Amino acid sequence: MILEASNQKDLETVKNFYLGRKGKIADIIKNIPALPENQRPLIGKEANVIKQQIAALISRKQVDLAKNLTPQDKIDVTLPPNRSRLGGLHPITQTINEIVKIFEHIGFCVVEGPEIETDYYNFQALNIPEGHPARDGLATFYLKDNDYLLRSQTSTVQIRIMQQVKPPLRALSPGRVFRPDNLDASHSFMFHQIEGLAVDRTTNFSHLKASLAYFVEKFFGPKTGMRFRPHYFPFTEPSAEMDISCIICSGQGCSVCGRKGWLEILGAGMVHPNVFKEVDIDPEVFQGYAFGLGIERIAMLKYGIDDIRLFANNDIRFLEQFD
Ligand code: PHE
Question: Do 212 and 95 share a domain, yes or no?
Answer without folding.
Answer: yes
